[in-house]
Amino acid sequence: MSMSRRKYLNGCLFIVTLIIAVSCRHPRINADKAFYYWRSNFSLSEKDKSYLQNVAVSKLYLHFFDVSWNDEYNKVLPVDEIKFDSTFTNTFQYVPVVFIANKALDKTPLDSIDELSRHILNEVSHIAGANNVNFKELQFDCDWTDGTRRKYFDLLTYFHKEMNQAGKLLSATIRLHQIKYAEKTGVPPVDRGMLMFYNMGKINSVPGYNSIYNTRDANNYASHIASYPLPLDIALPVFGWAICVREGKVTGIIEKAVDKDFSDTSMFSSGGTDIFVSHKAFFFHGKYFMKNDTVKLEQVTPDLCKSAAENAGRYLKDERRTVTLFDYDSIYLTNYDKKDLEKIFSLSN
Amino acid sequence: MKKKIKTCAPYLLLSIIIVAALIGLACGDMGPDYVASFVSSDVAHLNGNFDSFFISSDPQDHGGIGFDVLSNFNNINTGEWAGYFDGKVKNEDLDYIIYKARLGEIDSLIFAVKKSGYPLDTSLRNCSILKYKDTKKVSDFLFYMGYAKRCEPFATQISGWYDEDEVKARKDSIRSDTKRMLTLADKGQKQVTNAGSDFIKQRYVFQVLRLYFMSGDSDKCINYYHQNEKLIQSIGNSIRFRCMGYLAGADLKVGNIAEADYLYSQIFAGCVPMRDAAYTSFHPQEDSDWNQSLALAKNDSEKINLWFLLGVYADPLGSMQEIYKINPKSELLGLMLMRGINQLEGQSIDTYGGVHISTDRMNNNLLDFVITVAAKENSEKPYLWNLCAGYLEWINGKTDYDKYLDKAKVESAGDSLVMEEARYISIMGKVQAADVKDKNFGNNFLDDLAWLGSKHTVEKKEDFWGYRKGTAFAWVIECIAQKYHESGNRAMAYCFGLQTGFAHSGVLDTIVQIINKQNKTPMEVYALKILAKSKYDIVTMQAEGLVYDYKFKEAVALYQREHVVGSDSAETSEDNDGYGHWNDVSNPFVSQINDCFECGDSVPVDVNEPKDESLNLYQFAQGMLAYQDSLKTDPKNAATYYYRMANGYYNMTYFGSCRGYFSDIGDQYVHVWFGPYSEQDYSIPNVLDCKMAEDYYVKAMNLTKNAELKAKCCFRAAKCEHNYFYLNIPKDFKGDFIAGKYFAMLKTDYSKTQYYKEIIKECGYFRTYLGNK
Fold this sequence. Notes:
The complex is a heterodimer of chains A (349) and B (773).
Chain A: H1 3-23, E1 32-37, E2 41-42, H2 46-54, E3 57-70, E4 75-79, E5 83-84, E6 93-100, H3 102-106, H4 113-130, E7 137-141, H5 146-165, E8 169-174, H6 176-180, H7 182-185, E9 192-196, H8 215-222, E10 232-237, E11 240-246, E12 249-255, E13 268-272, E14 275-278, E15 282-284, E16 287-289, E17 294-299, H9 302-315, E18 322-326, H10 330-333, H11 338-345
Parallel strand pairs in A: 1-3, 1-18, 2-5, 3-6, 6-7, 7-8, 8-9, 9-10, 10-18
Antiparallel strand pairs in A: 3-4, 11-12, 11-17, 13-14, 14-17, 15-16
Helix pairs in contact in A: 4-5, 8-9, 9-11
Chain B: E1 4-5, H1 16-26, H2 69-84, H3 91-100, H4 103-114, H5 122-125, H6 135-156, H7 164-169, H8 178-194, H9 198-215, H10 218-227, H11 229-234, H12 238-253, H13 257-270, H14 275-281, H15 287-296, H16 300-313, H17 316-326, H18 331-348, E2 349-350, E3 356-358, H19 364-376, H20 382-395, H21 401-411, H22 416-433, H23 446-453, H24 465-487, H25 490-495, H26 506-516, H27 522-531, H28 535-547, H29 552-561, H30 617-633, H31 638-651, H32 660-663, H33 669-674, H34 691-703, H35 707-727, H36 741-749, H37 754-762, H38 764-772
Helix pairs in contact in B: 1-24, 2-3, 4-6, 6-8, 6-9, 8-9, 9-10, 9-12, 10-12, 12-13, 13-14, 13-15, 13-16, 16-17, 16-18, 17-18, 19-20, 20-21, 20-22, 21-22, 22-24, 26-28, 28-29, 29-30, 30-31, 31-34, 34-35, 35-36, 35-37
């Protein structure tokens, strides 16, 4: 085939794709609006409640606890259990979320998965019961591997039965690579998936590159969303962090960092857009900086989040779903006004 | 741009002997992994309590401080109680009471102390504590043990799973039973007043503190500590540090990070079993925390402890500079220096495929500081700073390193480890500086190499000290190889380990010439020793090249010309195990249904085929020639000869049973084992090519009238075809495989043969083919 003919056909293909993409954008159905609440101590002030109600949030996903392997005791144990303050009320719908570390699954023999599942169920029931948390849905979060898939899916199967018998839903977080390689990674046996539409790139020191969300990485995965066999909710990012770099190598991350954190000129000077360079050795936000270490700030601005929402909306099936933001934190949300959030929740730009 | 100095081209492959030596040393009983280091911390002669800091030079590793904390604490605790009883109560009895006795047994002992003749179990009757004269002290001990055992579950509990009963009953588990903890704490407080000695009082205070901490009441924990601080600090035992540990934990919980970190630094310095816990808990958040921690230090020693922990935590050089300002004679400076050097080595030396030093991450600030301290001579161990200055000068490419090394030798008063270390560095410098074009190259360091290459050291620390020596030796050998390579002497470079793959070239010829030389130079003699291959090995390597070019006649002639076959061949020589002969591969003229390397006798041999005996390369080449001759002299059996030759051609490929024929060629075998179908494969000609085998199977198949042999040839040809498919799988191909013409032929023409049934039994691919068809 000649080059010119190929170019011509490619051009036609592009136009056809564009037409299909545009014509496939349905008017969006209203979504259930939600936030992840990813802290160990649950405490909502009246101001928080009023903010959430003002933006019509009806649901909060609560990090109940992690299931992890304890080397010291040689056991799989629950850690970082959520604590509720005394003012807790069922103002919103709550979805307990349990994170399972792969090592915990690795270390659990296949024939002990039911036992582990019972432990987890008891733990969830105890926490929910002791704090009067009513829930209609339970969610698991696990970045399963080839090696842990069978065990994780067995665990989900156990919970699927238990939840369905209790008239509740079971959901699981789905990462983008699990969407793209669904045949290889498998589809979890749950009622719904929560697509985490962020953390899609490699954390690195490259200036200008945003590993939390960037359109280029997103588009590597997005076209596979429509064909995913589970009904999908979607989680979008409203957070940021700072990547610490020494001699070109990433040495750590400062969570929940914003640019004003680096405004003290006795410590940092600007090294370009969202880049800061340390002048001397010092402790800062739990990290030790040496002279000439750099910090790269990665944040999801309202515009970027809207772009992510619009991009995801383009590929998601048109059905009722929950759109949730990760996570509920005023440090970042002060940058978002009500209109921003409305657009984001509606998955349109 | 990354710059490398000190030799070592990227394709340098270390000679097997050096690698083997390093692996052997690395796998010694000492336990640590191979460390890319030329300097052992032993040379600093530091307090043994810090040994655990030096088992790794990994900068991410805080020194592997983790050891058996529990048994350490148990021993210390028992020792402290033994001191309480003036050593007059047996340790084993104390151990039993402290760690094993049930509460009922403690109560029985209390009764027995109060009332002589109280009936006791045999196991308790002979307890030496009952013979201790001061019964008040004994009672205090036993009452305290009873209390401690009641407190223990609240401290040793783990945050486990709720069991089902608890969930149903909505009962709190012990882990959240703060009411019981606080009740126990109240009782403990009363006992502090009643106890007869500060020793016991301090321990009650510890139990109460721990209960407050476990109950989550950090303020109570902090207040109670400060109320009893004088008592806690009055005895310099482990309990003092454990109390400080709970205070630090409570401080962290209430956000008093500065005091917590200050306490952790003091615990880190003063209590060896708690060092790991203190290190992992030390986390200044902001510089203000750190400065406040420093302000809490009561004296220089405490300040040094803080700076020392910072050095272990993050910044060895910054730590050294501050400690040096406070007290140049601090022993911790030497320790931090060794950590700094080892960390630098961890960043700058890599041992992948040899020992390479990269200077792009060299820290000139460290060098400057070490030179300054060395010059001032006011540290605790001036020799150590001179030794390290010499080492850093050399590693940075400076030429005046010897003056520091000489000074170190004098200042250490001939310390054997220092003398050895200085000698390593000098030898490396000497070899590096030598000119390979000089006709006397090597003469001034050959004796040094003999010493460096020997396993023993003056200290006879073969496993630990020795591997530093091994690293230096490996580096020096590579350095020499690189020098020869750069000068164009590829044969000598090859001998010293710079082996660029399959040696078809004149390199092997030159090595044979060196071996044959009567008047070898000392470096040539040494090079052959390093090469550790006999003439037979080298000739075999040459012959391998010819065999894989299908030049069997030339291969046989080569063996004969070099007189390495016959009674004096290496086949029976112990020196040549693994290089010259292949007793572990099966007869290449025999075929098997399944490809099976080194299957040997375990695979059934076809009737009428040659015995399944091992043939070496020379015999294989001779066999191929013999079959070639037989084709001419015995044409009526040509089908059999073609078939056997086809087996030979097939089995010498990667897929055959005798791929060992090429596995010893140069260093290519590494790729062969791990990447059979990868893109990096083979400079070895024809290793993956089954075409010759296929042609010969087809010739045999066409000539023979024996249906069984036809079936066999057809199946073998199918294997060749199948291998070709796997080496050239079309892009985006999905499925198992594409069957070729020979599978079809087998099904159509040979389905009635016995061999056909065997194929179905043994070959999954063929079964798949039949099933899918």
